[in-house]
């Protein structure tokens, strides 16, 4: 599933070609992409409206039009991009919007699991449900992060992936941030010191910033991008391999039904951060 950096890369790439454009017509190839709306209802809701902004909230893409927002969730294989002519769209496209300059915005989704719905502005908050602070937003301060962690009795890895507390942080980057901060993913968040939580906050911002750069570069190549394609994980997916920092062995455990990768040697117990290990945002 595309995580926050991949979703952010999609937003950045489509934002410019959509700015100020008007939708001439809307076409839905897979009916379930806009369910419970019908394709006809979706088309009527968006046709004739102008694009105002493209925003990311967590892993959600919000395409704001005049009075209506198109909510997009990429799910497993979704992707958004513009093409010169709708007749050139691939067979895996679930929906496409023809723009007033002749180009088309396509929602390419080979597995057909994505979501693309038209939601009136006043209903948007209810449709999205409760969401936590975005880890790239200005309000995601060290102080707020420490306060959130202090209120949780869950293992720190599970806390990081709770979308009601932090919106958009997924499995790969939660594991990588914990590794960078030298924190055991099984540690209880409320029991960690303020210094260690602040170090984790810095690691989250740094890891996501670097991953967004990689995702943006990968996205611009022909054929799209794969999740974490250019991002070189230190622990994720490296079970049994040697830790690049301490030469211990990377271990995999189950937490909340998901795989967690970490180094038991350098992520266990309190650690002092050496000068070379200090976290700096990308």
3D architecture notes:
It is a single chain. The protein is of the alpha+beta class. The protein has two domains: 4-128, Alpha-Beta Barrel (N-terminal domain of MutM-like DNA repair proteins), CATH 3.20.190; 142-277, Orthogonal Bundle (Helicase, Ruva Protein, domain 3), CATH 1.10.8. The protein has seven helices and ten strands. The chain has helices spanning 4-18, 39-46, 124-128, 142-150, 156-160, 171-180, 194-219; strands at residues 23-28, 51-57, 60-65, 68-73, 79-83, 93-99, 104-108, 115-120, 251-255, 258-262. The chain has a four-stranded antiparallel sheet with strand order 1-6-7-5. A hairpin with a 4-residue loop joins strand 6 and strand 7. Helix 1 crosses helix 7, helix 4 (142-150) packs across helix 7 and helix 6 (171-180) crosses helix 7 (194-219). The radius of gyration is 20 Å and the shape is elongated.
